Amino acid sequence: MNVAFLVFSPSGNGVKAARRIGSLLAARAIEAQVVDLTGDESWFRGPPSGGRLEDLVPRHDLLCVAAPVYAHHLQYHMKDAVSLLPRPNGKWGALALPILSYGGFSTGVALKEAARLLERSGRRVVGAARVAAPHAISRLPQIRVKMNFDRPGTAEEALFEDIADAIAAALAGNLPEPGTVLKQLGFPSPTARLKAALVFRERLFQRRVYPRLSFDASRCAGCGACADACAVRRLEVAEGKAGFRDGLQECIHCGNCILACPRGALSFAADFAVWNELFEKSRRGSGPMVSRETPDSAFFGGERKEAPVGR
Questions:
Q1: What is the pLDDT of residues 112-161, one digit of tens each?
Q2: Distance between CA 207 and CA 167 in Å, rounded?
Q3: Is 212-269 the same fold as 2-194+292-300?
Q4: How many helices (H) and strands (E) does the chain have?
Q5: Domain locations along the chain
Q6: CATH code for 2-194+292-300?
Q7: Nearest-CA neighbor of 38 among 6, 3, 71, 4?
Q8: What phi, psi does 84 have (nearest 5°)?
Q9: Which of 63-72, 75-84, 192-201 has the weakest average pLDDT?
Q10: Tell me, which fold does domain 212-269 have in CATH?
């Protein structure tokens, strides 16, 4: 039996989780392959297409989708990819499982979005997981509070074992009862769902709310490290200086380029005192961004007539 992981992982958390789960599946005699869309030139330089997914994703019996939560939603690049998935056929399996990483604040409606999109593509969702990870912005040197920097790690090992057990069970025909996984994903309150629909609109946030990426030409050596690190291939070096590629300014604010630059030529034009205050309040368990989700990493396996065989 074969499992494919389709991953978009700007901060590396999703691909780390996918590879660990893949190693646990290998111990159960299940082959797993990871397809990472992060920084894929062919995916981000043109309009996303189902044909490109056909080229990238190998034959499988179960598809795991691993991506980050952005602004309480499934990150929109992965949302686009899932909406383009071919229907199940001889190559594309009919079973699916989303695994979403988030920076310790809230998964919002992201897991349910992912599960519903997978079901609309003709797949049966056999489980879903949220994985605590470092918040992308908290990786920046200007942020004092480093949240979840040891995650995913040993704290998630039991979770990854549960996911591997559930995948093995599903491939053996032990499936959750229809609709029970989505039912478990109904945990956001009505107020949280309303906020996700009306307030947390990621594409709008990226264009109008989040800080702009700025370039200091006097510091830039034109080495291209930032362009190589960009998860969505929006940067290039032209005439010896880094900048947005072809006028495209769709930055997803992962911070990879800032961390990659050896000369500090890139930065977000932001009031980091405000960001530090938000992170500090969240660390103390207060403020508008604190997560109320416990446990912070969790697996939702629905209801089965038979429990998955454990390790």
A1: 999 999 999 999 999 999 999 988 888 898 988 887 888 888 889 999 99
A2: 38
A3: no
A4: 12, 12
A5: 2-194+292-300, 212-269
A6: 3.40.50.360
A7: 6
A8: -100, 0
A9: 192-201
A10: Alpha-Beta Plaits (3.30.70)
